[in-house]
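Q: Hi! Curious about what DUF1308 domain-containing protein looks like structurally. Here's the sequence.
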Amino acid sequence: MSCDDELRLNFEDLIQKGNRLVDALSEDQLVNIVGASKLKRKVKQEISFLTKVLQKNLMKKEHVLCSNLHHLEAVVNKIQQTSNIFAISKTFQFTDESKTVKKINVDIVTEDGTKWIKIKSRNPKAITQIATGDSSFGQKSMIDQAIEYLQCADQNPAMFQAPKICIHFAQGVEATLSNILKNMNIDVSGNIISQQLDTGSSFDELTSTSIVSHTDLQNRRSESEQISRDIQKLNLDVSTMIAYVSSLTNGGSDHLFHDPLLNQQAEWERRRPVKPILDALFQGKTLIACQNAVDDFKTIVETMAGDEETRRAQNLINSIQVVPNTPTAKAMALEKRGKIKTRSINIFGTGDSLGAMTVTANNGFIRSAQSQGMDFVTYVHESRALTENKEIRCDDERS
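A: Let's find out. The predicted structure is below.
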């Protein structure tokens, strides 16, 4: 076989590998995960490039060796081994010590956002050499990157704490570098390889420098990690208070309504009752609601609720702690458009400022905030309307 024929076969094999990655990212369990389509586009771009080069007979060995498909394959393989994926290929922004705004891409976000996984697919010896300064000018070492990951995580808390960083080395990592990363409070996965290079003195210097450079950050993260993941304070949105007192969720889901939306909600409630979910969530928790939420809830109840819904609403208000509107600067920075209104900013922002999980059915606000780069700690449930008065009229007309 000639060199050209062998190179062509290598191209064809690599393109087939790319197509397999596209198929993997199209599976039902992945297709709806945030960022999966973005990763799939990256794979397709690589396939398109390789296909064009192959068709024009412009193949070079470097095209195969340096193709990004090798790294993307490592990412997809790790995705398939990971459960409870929150997002894929998600970009986060942070400010470094020189006040420069930077961005990093996290390959896999898991455990409700509290764990970030970065995939490294380079040769372990090359990673070690770069870490000990044996690299071209401007090339970041693994330690430099790790410090940036920690800084970024510290500035992008999930569940009110800095996400845990895990670096997965698809081709393995040499033991000394692995130990340094673990000492920086970073999880390491992948095959641990016994040290082959004579880099002891370089690593001694590197370890000393790394410890000094990230000590303050590590102290801040230790304080953050003292916060319990089991959040004890729940911030109720108007949509949650309405759902909790609705006739639909309190035995009235068998009624019929003129409004198709209410009939749909009644069917949902028969299939997936909301009240038991909220009761289980509320148990043992401190319930709060900001003044804006309570005032608007009262107005809605006065306008639309039936007698029993009104009674349940008063009991609910009596059981929660009403707090002032104190939205965080993060929430206040949201641009008001679409689903982002002043009330939602006050509600979600107050929960954020008080370290409370916001319970809501307002998915529209969450998506709109995410489109502006803002994430809030939330528990989302299905919406339910106040229906008591409408079910009475419908029943009367049917009779």
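A: A fun detail: The longest strand covers residues 85-95.
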